[in-house]
Amino acid sequence: MFCEKCGKEMQENKCPECGYVKEVKTKINPAKFWWFWALILVVVISVGSSIWVVVDNFNNSGNAVVSSEKTRDKSSKKQKDEKDTETDPDIEDTSDDRDNDADEDKDNQEFEEITNISPNDYSTSELEALIEKQEVRVIDTMYTVQHDEYKSLYPDMLQAIIQNDSSVDIRDAVIAFVAWDENNLPVKIAGTYDYNGGTYIKRVNYDAINLTAGGTFGHNSGLEIDENNNIKTVKAIVVSYTTFENETWENPYYETWCELNEAKKLEG
Question: Is the pTM of this model over 0.85?
Answer without folding.
Answer: no
